[in-house]
Amino acid sequence: MLKGQKTAIRSLEEDDIDALYKWYNDQEVNLWSSGAWPLNTLLSKDEIAAKFLDGSPDTYRYAILDENDLLIGTIGFKELNIPGQSATLFIVVGNKTYWGKGYGTDALITFARFLFTQWNFHRISLDTWDENIRAIKAYERVGFKIEGRQRKARFVLGNYHDVILMGLLRDEFLALHGK
Protein backbone atom coordinates (compact mmCIF):
# COMPACT_ATOMS: atom_id res chain seq x y z
CA MET A 1 0.00 0.00 0.00
CA LEU A 2 1.24 3.48 -0.88
CA LYS A 3 0.90 6.10 1.88
CA GLY A 4 0.51 9.82 1.36
CA GLN A 5 -0.13 12.54 3.93
CA LYS A 6 -3.93 12.25 3.65
CA THR A 7 -4.47 9.23 1.44
CA ALA A 8 -3.39 5.66 0.83
CA ILE A 9 -3.47 3.78 -2.46
CA ARG A 10 -4.09 0.04 -2.72
CA SER A 11 -5.33 -2.53 -5.22
CA LEU A 12 -9.04 -2.52 -5.98
CA GLU A 13 -11.06 -5.25 -4.27
CA GLU A 14 -14.42 -6.88 -4.86
CA ASP A 15 -15.86 -5.03 -1.85
CA ASP A 16 -15.23 -1.73 -3.72
CA ILE A 17 -17.71 -2.49 -6.50
CA ASP A 18 -20.81 -1.01 -4.81
CA ALA A 19 -19.12 2.38 -4.33
CA LEU A 20 -17.67 2.33 -7.86
CA TYR A 21 -21.08 1.48 -9.28
CA LYS A 22 -22.59 4.48 -7.49
CA TRP A 23 -19.84 6.90 -8.59
CA TYR A 24 -19.53 5.85 -12.19
CA ASN A 25 -23.28 6.20 -12.69
CA ASP A 26 -23.45 9.58 -10.91
CA GLN A 27 -24.06 12.60 -13.13
CA GLU A 28 -21.95 15.07 -11.14
CA VAL A 29 -19.01 12.70 -10.62
CA ASN A 30 -18.90 11.90 -14.34
CA LEU A 31 -19.26 15.52 -15.36
CA TRP A 32 -16.19 16.63 -13.40
CA SER A 33 -14.09 13.52 -13.82
CA SER A 34 -14.30 13.38 -17.60
CA GLY A 35 -16.87 15.80 -18.93
CA ALA A 36 -18.88 12.70 -19.82
CA TRP A 37 -22.42 13.84 -19.21
CA PRO A 38 -24.68 12.75 -20.55
CA LEU A 39 -23.09 9.38 -19.96
CA ASN A 40 -22.08 7.33 -22.96
CA THR A 41 -23.53 4.34 -21.15
CA LEU A 42 -24.81 3.40 -17.72
CA LEU A 43 -22.79 0.46 -16.43
CA SER A 44 -24.16 -2.47 -14.42
CA LYS A 45 -22.36 -3.78 -11.34
CA ASP A 46 -21.13 -6.75 -13.38
CA GLU A 47 -19.74 -4.42 -16.05
CA ILE A 48 -18.06 -2.27 -13.37
CA ALA A 49 -16.54 -5.40 -11.78
CA ALA A 50 -15.25 -6.62 -15.15
CA LYS A 51 -13.80 -3.21 -16.01
CA PHE A 52 -12.18 -2.52 -12.63
CA LEU A 53 -11.22 -5.95 -11.30
CA ASP A 54 -10.45 -7.90 -14.46
CA GLY A 55 -9.44 -4.80 -16.38
CA SER A 56 -7.50 -4.65 -19.56
CA PRO A 57 -3.82 -5.52 -19.85
CA ASP A 58 -2.87 -1.91 -20.61
CA THR A 59 -4.82 -0.18 -17.82
CA TYR A 60 -3.77 -0.18 -14.15
CA ARG A 61 -6.43 0.88 -11.59
CA TYR A 62 -6.11 1.39 -7.85
CA ALA A 63 -8.24 2.50 -4.90
CA ILE A 64 -7.77 5.80 -3.06
CA LEU A 65 -8.45 5.63 0.68
CA ASP A 66 -8.76 8.38 3.29
CA GLU A 67 -6.97 8.38 6.68
CA ASN A 68 -9.54 5.89 8.03
CA ASP A 69 -9.17 3.49 5.09
CA LEU A 70 -12.52 4.55 3.58
CA LEU A 71 -12.64 4.22 -0.21
CA ILE A 72 -12.98 7.72 -1.68
CA GLY A 73 -11.86 7.31 -5.30
CA THR A 74 -9.74 5.60 -7.90
CA ILE A 75 -6.46 6.40 -9.61
CA GLY A 76 -4.43 4.71 -12.27
CA PHE A 77 -2.64 4.88 -15.57
CA LYS A 78 -3.00 3.68 -19.14
CA GLU A 79 -1.21 4.07 -22.45
CA LEU A 80 2.00 2.72 -20.96
CA ASN A 81 4.94 3.51 -23.23
CA ILE A 82 7.84 1.38 -22.02
CA PRO A 83 10.52 2.76 -24.40
CA GLY A 84 9.45 6.32 -23.60
CA GLN A 85 9.04 5.57 -19.87
CA SER A 86 5.68 7.34 -19.84
CA ALA A 87 1.96 6.83 -19.28
CA THR A 88 -1.31 8.72 -19.00
CA LEU A 89 -2.82 9.17 -15.54
CA PHE A 90 -6.45 9.32 -14.49
CA ILE A 91 -8.08 10.03 -11.15
CA VAL A 92 -11.64 10.17 -9.83
CA VAL A 93 -12.54 11.26 -6.33
CA GLY A 94 -15.99 9.70 -6.33
CA ASN A 95 -16.97 10.51 -2.75
CA LYS A 96 -18.11 14.12 -3.15
CA THR A 97 -17.63 14.98 0.54
CA TYR A 98 -13.86 14.85 -0.18
CA TRP A 99 -13.95 17.31 -3.07
CA GLY A 100 -11.93 20.49 -2.64
CA LYS A 101 -10.11 19.24 0.47
CA GLY A 102 -6.75 18.21 -1.01
CA TYR A 103 -7.33 14.46 -1.13
CA GLY A 104 -7.04 14.25 -4.90
CA THR A 105 -3.86 16.34 -4.88
CA ASP A 106 -2.35 14.15 -2.15
CA ALA A 107 -3.25 10.96 -4.03
CA LEU A 108 -1.71 12.36 -7.24
CA ILE A 109 1.52 13.31 -5.46
CA THR A 110 1.73 9.88 -3.80
CA PHE A 111 1.02 8.04 -7.05
CA ALA A 112 3.33 10.22 -9.17
CA ARG A 113 6.17 9.62 -6.69
CA PHE A 114 5.57 5.86 -7.02
CA LEU A 115 5.57 6.01 -10.83
CA PHE A 116 8.70 8.17 -11.01
CA THR A 117 10.75 6.33 -8.38
CA GLN A 118 9.52 2.71 -8.60
CA TRP A 119 8.40 2.38 -12.23
CA ASN A 120 11.20 4.71 -13.35
CA PHE A 121 8.85 6.80 -15.49
CA HIS A 122 10.35 9.83 -17.15
CA ARG A 123 7.03 11.53 -17.89
CA ILE A 124 3.35 11.29 -17.01
CA SER A 125 0.50 13.08 -18.68
CA LEU A 126 -3.23 13.61 -18.23
CA ASP A 127 -6.05 15.64 -19.68
CA THR A 128 -9.26 17.34 -18.64
CA TRP A 129 -11.78 19.67 -20.17
CA ASP A 130 -11.44 23.45 -20.08
CA GLU A 131 -14.14 24.20 -17.49
CA ASN A 132 -12.73 21.77 -14.91
CA ILE A 133 -10.79 24.55 -13.19
CA ARG A 134 -10.64 22.79 -9.80
CA ALA A 135 -8.86 19.79 -11.40
CA ILE A 136 -6.50 21.99 -13.43
CA LYS A 137 -5.46 23.85 -10.25
CA ALA A 138 -4.89 20.54 -8.41
CA TYR A 139 -2.80 19.20 -11.30
CA GLU A 140 -0.72 22.40 -11.29
CA ARG A 141 -0.10 22.02 -7.52
CA VAL A 142 1.33 18.57 -8.24
CA GLY A 143 3.59 20.14 -10.89
CA PHE A 144 1.77 19.42 -14.15
CA LYS A 145 2.12 22.04 -16.85
CA ILE A 146 -0.33 22.82 -19.62
CA GLU A 147 1.26 21.52 -22.81
CA GLY A 148 -1.54 21.87 -25.28
CA ARG A 149 -5.17 22.12 -26.15
CA GLN A 150 -7.42 20.11 -28.42
CA ARG A 151 -10.02 22.52 -29.66
CA LYS A 152 -13.66 21.57 -29.13
CA ALA A 153 -12.77 17.90 -28.57
CA ARG A 154 -15.30 17.10 -25.80
CA PHE A 155 -19.05 17.41 -25.96
CA VAL A 156 -20.38 18.35 -22.52
CA LEU A 157 -23.95 19.35 -21.69
CA GLY A 158 -24.78 20.26 -25.27
CA ASN A 159 -21.63 22.26 -26.00
CA TYR A 160 -18.18 21.51 -27.35
CA HIS A 161 -15.24 22.20 -25.02
CA ASP A 162 -11.48 22.22 -25.39
CA VAL A 163 -9.41 19.42 -23.90
CA ILE A 164 -6.47 20.66 -21.83
CA LEU A 165 -3.37 18.45 -22.16
CA MET A 166 -0.97 18.47 -19.21
CA GLY A 167 2.37 16.81 -18.56
CA LEU A 168 4.88 16.33 -15.76
CA LEU A 169 8.54 15.27 -15.97
CA ARG A 170 10.33 13.30 -13.24
CA ASP A 171 12.94 16.02 -12.60
CA GLU A 172 10.24 18.69 -12.22
CA PHE A 173 8.25 16.54 -9.81
CA LEU A 174 11.25 15.61 -7.64
CA ALA A 175 12.35 19.26 -7.49
CA LEU A 176 8.90 20.18 -6.12
CA HIS A 177 8.15 17.21 -3.89
CA GLY A 178 11.43 15.37 -3.23
CA LYS A 179 11.81 11.61 -3.22
Automatic annotation (TrEMBL):
Which protein is depicted?
Ribosomal-protein-S5p-alanine acetyltransferase
Q: Per the database record, which ranges form the N-acetyltransferase domain?
A: 7-171
As one GO molecular function, the record gives: acyltransferase activity, transferring groups other than amino-acyl groups
Q: Does the keyword Membrane apply?
A: no
| Keyword Transferase in annotation | yes
Pfam families linked: Acetyltransf_3
Give UniProt keywords alphabetically.
Transferase
Query: Which Gene3D superfamilies would you find in this protein's record?
Result: 3.40.630.30
Q: Which organism is it from?
A: Desulfosporosinus metallidurans
